[in-house]
Amino acid sequence: MKRVKEFLIKEVKIKDNDTIVLGNSGGPDSMYLLNVLLDLRKKLNLKIVCAHVNHNVRLESEKEQEFLMNYCKDHDVLFEVMKIEKYGDDNFHNQARTIRYNFFEDIVKKYDANYLMTAHHGDDLIETILMRIVRGSTLKGYSGFEKIIDNGTYKTVRPLVFLTKDYIEKYDKEHNIPYVTDQSNFKGKYTRNRYRMNVLPFLKEEDSKVNEKFLKFSETLEDYDRFINEEIQKSIDKVYKNDIIDINKYKELDKLIQKKMISKILEEIYKEDLMIINDKHVKLINDLLLSKRSNAKVCLPHNIEVVKAYDKAKFSKEIKEVIDYKIEITNYTTLPNGHKLEVVDEIESNNNDVCRLDSNEIKLPLYVRTRKYGDKMYLKKINGARKVKDIFIDCKTPANERDRWPIVVDSEDKIVWIPSIKKSKFTKLKNEKYDIIIKYS
């Protein structure tokens, strides 16, 4: 624990009155880090916010959420939770990771936090590096993950990168730190688990301090990558602007710089999702830019496209329709369209981005979903109901946005609000009786 605390104080430089959001699963690593922060709070006036994602895929998920909520309550730690109601058809782990980090970022913004901390440790770093070497990646990708990432308004910090899983679990047991165990971590069907169960034991047999060697490897690659990036940036400024590559100028670059430039652009686009990008994607883009075809495109993960049109190539996100989702509204709910719903105590505004409701007139909990065929909403001062389709037309909502526009309903599926568009007969004015306020942003 001493090395972790020294890292936080001397390198991260946490100080009095800092706010820290901790992504916490309730597992041994997360609970260890939470106790490190609780120990530091004895000396520094820290505000600790525990952010938990209930992935809702195991029977134990509800008990784990309750365990962590009660632990935070007993230790005077703020607790925020998000429950994932439904997943799409894409890779489960990629989806869960994206949802998780979007939620963490929302909580960071909500509390204006200085740091987001996760409990990734030395074993996680080894697994990540090995998986990327086998899959193929960029120079930055091969380095695994950084200890500190400056996001501008806050920093992402991984303070446990110096420690092994064995050390953390042993410490937890010796100091009676409670935690939950996710049995899915031992299932061989997941790639990371196979590295964890088969490769790591062999490496640790060869060298009990192999985690330190991988950490040094990671830091060395980061140093080289940082130096090369400074040189690459000079070329990027000349060739790449507003998400567009000037292909004629690109062709004048050295081959190494060409590929490294593409890697750097992809790193900026994918950030924490860099795991899903490898050297094959870099080659596809490079081949596209150097090909004789006037018009062509490359499709990348997360609906990113590189579209070539004559002597220009543009990186852009393909907008795909989001259909058939339903999410229970919590204090802070991130929506598939990139917007958010937030339950607030008070707000001056009374426009269509704010909804006031009386819980006695509706059936809780509230949900947000996509529209259904034949949806109708009851409006104030109008007998009967109007079709949601007609409301969208009246409000000139773009046709390509209607199927993914959020619809707020109660537990009986009565539409109470179409955020930014229209309020229902259930919404209240500021001078009327209400006990729920929701803001759309």
Structure description:
This protein is an alpha+beta fold. The chain folds into three domains: 168 residues, Rossmann fold (3-Layer(aba) Sandwich), CATH 3.40.50; 79 residues, Uridine Diphospho-n-acetylenolpyruvylglucosamine Reductase, domain 3, CATH 3.30.465; 115 residues, Phenylalanyl-tRNA Synthetase, Chain B, domain 3 (3-Layer(bba) Sandwich), CATH 3.50.40.10. It is 40% helix and 20% strand. The protein has 14 helices and 22 strands. The chain has a six-stranded mixed β-sheet with strand order 3-2-1-4-6-5, with helices on both faces. A five-stranded antiparallel β-sheet has the order 7-8-11-10-9. A five-stranded antiparallel β-sheet has the order 12-16-19-20-21, with no helix packed on it. Helix 5 crosses helix 8, helix 9 packs across helix 11 and helix 11 packs across helix 12. It is globular and about 75 Å long.
Note the main attributes of this structure.
6-stranded mixed β-sheet, Uridine Diphospho-n-acetylenolpyruvylglucosamine Reductase, domain 3, single chain, 441 residues, Rossmann fold, 5-stranded antiparallel β-sheet, 3 domains, alpha+beta, 14 helices, Phenylalanyl-tRNA Synthetase, Chain B, domain 3
